[in-house]
Amino acid sequence: MGEPTFTLPEIIDNENGWGPSPAMLTEKFRDIPYAPYSKSDKLGKIADWSTPEQKEKESTGRQRQGYRFREQYTAYGHGASSTFTYTHAEDEASFSVVDNRSAAQKKAASYRTTGSTKARGANRNQQQQRQQRNGQYQRLGAMNRGLTGSKANNSNVRRRFGWKDYDKNQRTRDASVTVGPEWKVLEEIEFNRLSKLNLDVDEGDDISSHGFLYHYDKSYDKVTTKTEKPLVPSERFRLFVSASEDPIIEQLARDDEATVFSTDAVLSMLMCAPRSVYPWDIIIIRTGNKLFFDRRKGVYDYITVNENAADPPIETGDKDNINSPNSLSLEAIDINHYFSVQVLNEAERYDFKKQNPFINSSEDIEIMAPCAYRYRRFDLSIKEEEDISLIVRTQLDSVVKQPSGDSFITIKALNEFDSRAQGAGGSLDWRQKLDTQRGAVVATEMKNNSFKLARWAVQSILAGADQMKLGYVSRVNPKDRTRHAILGTQMSKPRDFAAQMNLSISNGWGIVRTIIDICMKLPEGKYVLIKDPNKPVVRLYSVPLNTFETEDDVLDDGEDIDEEEEEIIEK
């Protein structure tokens, strides 16, 4: 035997980079797909063609304490596994399976696969119960399915209607404001990215307090469903003054006391944005190195009802529908206003050092709802050399005497319209369950009104309130939206209430700091942050300076307002 021989194969080195060299691209290898790879990849990963294609537009994470977005990047060779994805070139629409078995064979096969007679009986009973509970079945033939050929002959398919949202039409909502042709989109941020932000902020400092408060009437803590009290309408009204029209904020801005200015209503909307479903918009004005978060003129703070329910109220277009989203919102505004005035004891009064900045005479005191305003400053700086501070005007509604001293509170009201109507969100009947199953009622309200309750908790925390008073107000008659009764009250600490809702205040501050950073990089001007009416997305637009300055722009949402809305706007 001769000596064994071994000949090394030819090695062609690509001196100009990675991958096959031009010398290798012969007729033998010309049609073979090549997947580029990164230098940082392991050798075993070069031939790994089974991994699914990665998302190139994957949501980015957090950077530096979580408040800033990490820039998107795509590594060399990223997503190259799609090169080897097999795609059948021919049309498979005409493909069908022909079953030559007889009806008797099919029936026997079905009995073999469904188990024992006892199990089949139980399955039939369950199907009958589901059919009674969730609506009827409807058989769709080949004409409805658009099937042809042998597939149409075997299309005895049954679909179940009324089960969750499977067969419901997609609901579309109108935006809160019409986007003008000259508006430019600057940023688009998804809610899942906002939910990942985080920024820890210390407790705010009080700058000044204005107005006076009446003491809370503790007799309402004893109200139950059996001793309900009627809700009394009040002739007093509240003011909705924007941050840019607030004389105190204007003076603080001139004195260079902070960088960003806002109100608790606007700031809470931004901090709880990932929970919102209905559309909204916020005006952002940059003047020099100052930012003002504001609302449009003539737009007051709407209070939604069952916004987060799985089956929220539907806008039918019928103005007489008292359970439409718009009607329920106006009803909730009235209920909150009347309740916050009724539960006060005007015999006892607490005065702050400074007068209410929106009251010009003693007559205004008699016709305005009593409340106090706290201007508080929060430090949003990340580095020591930064100076990003925010001043927010907050509101307090009442004061309660405690052994340790006076305790400031905010007052809100939840309202029940009809537990059996569409949009009720599976809520319990308060008159039957509120006293015995308070926890179940609260849990349902937290689910159906997550955005609203989160905003109330954030507003109370921003104001430095010690407690938050919640009232439960229901219609006397489900068909009448004008008469209501107080069925009970509940006192909670704002931070404990936020914890029950899984509400992260640091996440809200992260959202605020992110929007501030984006706007600080923009030139001076006016901008609008708009929540998409049908998607969990917010968009930042650049708009002309005169936008929303005329009456036509104020009501630019394309909808006519009724007399009740006009009255509220005038107030």
Give a quick set of tags describing it.
571 residues; alpha+beta; ten-stranded mixed beta sheet; five-stranded mixed beta sheet; 17 helices; 19 strands; 26% helix; globular; disordered C terminus
Question: How would you summarize the topology of this molecule?
Answer:
Blueprint: H1 43-46, E1 62-63, E2 68-69, H2 103-113, H3 117-134, E3 137-140, H4 142-145, H5 150-153, E4 157-160, E5 184-190, H6 191-194, E6 205-216, E7 229-230, H7 247-254, E8 260-263, H8 264-271, E9 281-287, E10 290-294, H9 325-342, E11 344-351, H10 362-367, E12 372-379, E13 389-396, E14 398-402, E15 405-416, H11 430-433, H12 438-448, H13 450-463, E16 467-475, E17 484-492, H14 494-500, H15 505-520, E18 525-531, E19 537-543, H16 551-554, H17 563-570
Parallel strand pairs: 8-10, 8-13, 15-16
Antiparallel strand pairs: 1-2, 3-4, 5-19, 6-11, 6-12, 7-17, 9-10, 9-18, 12-13, 14-15, 16-17, 18-19
Helix pairs in contact: 8-13, 8-15, 13-14
